[in-house]
Amino acid sequence: MRYVHTSISVLFLAFLFTGCKKEFTGLSSNANEIFWVTNKGADMPVRVMGNTSSKIIILIIHGGPGDGSYDYANYETKRLRDKYGVAFWDQRNAGAASGTNNIDKLSLPQMINDLELVVKVLKLRYQGADVFLYAHSFGGLLATGYLVKDSNQNQLNGWIEIDGAHNYPLSNTSSRKMLMDTAQSEINKGNNILQWQKILSYCSSHDPLSTYEISSQIESYAHDAENYMGIERKNSILTLAEDPSDQLVNYYNLFYTSSGNDFLQSLESANYSDQLYKIKIPSLLLWGQFDFTVPPDVGEDGMTNLGSAYKKLVFFPHSGHHPMETETDLVEDEIIAFIETFK
Fold first, then answer.
1. What are the φ/ψ torsions at residue 57 (nearest 5 degrees)?
2. Cβ neighbours of residue 54 closer than 8 Å, sequence gap 6 or more
3. Is the pLDDT assigned to residue 4 strictly greater than 80?
4. pLDDT, tens digit, for every residue of 117-127?
5. What do you get for the CA distance between the two ends of the chain, in Å?
6. In angstroms, rounded to a whole number, what is the distance separating the alpha carbons of residues 259 and 104?
7. Could you tell me the domains of the chain?
8. Model pTM?
9. pLDDT band for position 244 (50/70/90)?
10. Of 159, 168, 122, 160, which is closest to residue 141 (Cα–Cα)?
11. Predicted local confidence at residue 17, as pLDDT
């Protein structure tokens, strides 16, 4: 398989956009190419796969922070890739992204700026294509920060938020409450009593808004809770060629340096709920009913506050934080219907 590699630099944006078009190999029903977007010290790969001849591009805004986009490149987007082009972007300091000293530039505003550039490149590279955002978990926060700028909405036909954390304080407090309520209910039923008692004891005596360490521990219990409720994620075995593996240096820089930890702690106060009214484009919210990490309350908050004329919230009764993995067909049915309506 032949891949196209293009480096995009903000400094020489106009020139390189022209170069990007010259190197572009054309639309395809089975595209598989990589280009790189370079911005403020970070070199970020964008791998475009699937049916770009549809003139529809779905841009994956992956979770984390620190995860890679390739986690979404298997069965959970297969039908989407059959029908549309799907762009897998690794955010700065995530996945296969590289660059020098960019950990010091890691911030939410900088990542929003990165996203702005990626969307512009996609629009120029695939001229005439409709672009939709597919934002999951932390990606929901990043996408929301991008969308509350009016000029950015003009680049898109719509967006899809899947268990997106557009309000971290609400996510944290709702997670604690959901864990305690469910723990008490499950203890009363005699299910996994010791495990739920441990969760209940910790959550009852710790406030996730007080420290990053406490919110991280509660998030860890949130993932455990899905297992105790019988939510089973499929084994995601990557079978696609040339997997751009995560770079361990990104993981280290994010979680074991002062700059990385400063960034993670800064997210604890990130909250776009009071700005959601600015988002006017069609919006599809997809949520796992048993998501203890970013609970259904956050989806309800989005549905209440979005300014979109069309907005829809769908709950999946057998899913947690990753409904695209546990109820894949139903999630893709919703996404395809949404795209076909607003393309």
1. -120, 125
2. 83, 84, 85
3. no
4. 999 999 999 99
5. 30
6. 6
7. 7-167+243-342 (3.40.50.1820), 170-228 (no CATH)
8. 0.90
9. low
10. 168
11. 38
23 contact partners, CB below 8 Å, separation of at least 6: 4, 6
Note whether 15 and 255 are within 8 A (CB). no
Burial environment of residue 48 by CB neighbours within 10 A (0 to 12, 13 to 18, 19 or more): buried
Identity of the amino acid at 321: H
The C-alpha atoms of residue 297 and residue 294 are separated, in whole angstroms, by: 8
CA torsion through residues 108, 59, 301, 213, sign: negative
Helices (H) and strands (E) in the chain, counts: 13, 10
Computed over every residue of the chain, the mean pLDDT equals 90
Q: What gap in Å lies between CA 285 and CA 15, rounded to an integer?
A: 38
d(CA 238, CA 264): 28
| Per-residue pLDDT at 71 exceeds 90 | no
Do residues 4 and 31 make contact, with C-beta atoms less than 8 angstroms apart? Answer: no
Q: How many CB atoms lie within 10 A of CB 235?
A: 8
Of the candidates 265, 268, 255, 184, the residue with the CA atom closest to the CA atom of residue 225: 184
DSSP string, 123-140: HHHTTT-EEEEEEETHHH
Could you give the angle at which helices 258-266 and 212-228 cross, rounded to 10 degrees? 70
Residue that is written with structure tokens 């190197």 in the block:
23
71 is written with which tokens?
A: 């986690």
